[in-house]
Design a protein that fits this description.
This protein has 161 residues and is mostly helical. 46% of the residues lie in helices and 10% in strands. The chain folds into two domains: 47 residues, no CATH class; 91 residues, Arc Repressor Mutant, subunit A, CATH 1.10.10. The chain is elongated.
């Protein structure tokens, strides 16, 4: 494969891909991937045989980030909160609410999730029970406008860490 030698397994699909210009030529893709990885100074891709199949692992470039002191402080705060709350997700929810009130979907988006997971719901309920957060509309807990904010106890938790 590395040398660009390929065996067409399904001639019909290969012909259709060729006619639709989805491929340039037979067997050139793998060697081009290796060349590009070398040019980009990335680790060499791996080919792992698994029975009659293969697994092809390509390592992508990672963005270079320079941590500032505030990033270090946030990281330290998160780890201390996590140890107190015994949940990394709960610690991150507390950190998000430190910036102001937010609804579940806003919290999920801040966490990088598209939807509200069952685990997020569980952690929000737990934080409510522990009185670290409170609802902005306590009389209508299932309101679509419901948001959450830190309580005094939640603020004290952050300030005492």
């Amino acid at each position: 494969m590395k040398q660009g030698i390929s065996k067409i397994r399904n001639h019909i699909i290969a012909r259709v891909f060729r006619e639709l210009n989805l491929i340039e030529q037979w067997g050139s893709g793998i060697s081009r991937i290796y060349s590009e990885a070398k040019e980009q100074q990335l680790p060499e891709p791996e080919i792992i045989e698994i029975g009659m199949r293969i697994r092809f692992i390509i390592y992508l470039a990672q963005p270079i980030t320079i941590e500032s002191h505030s990033d270090e402080n946030e990281s330290r705060l998160e780890s201390r909160l996590e140890s107190r709350l015994e949940s990394k997700l709960a610690a991150r929810v507390i950190q998000i609410l430190q910036n102001g009130e937010a609804g579940k979907i806003q919290i999920a988006h801040s966490l990088g999730h598209e939807t509200v997971s069952g685990e997020l719901n569980k952690q929000i309920k737990q934080l409510l029970l522990l009185d670290f957060i409170e609802m902005t509309i306590p009389d209508i807990p299932n309101s679509r406008l419901q948001k959450y904010r830190l309580t005094k106890k939640g603020l004290d938790l952050i300030n005492n860490i």
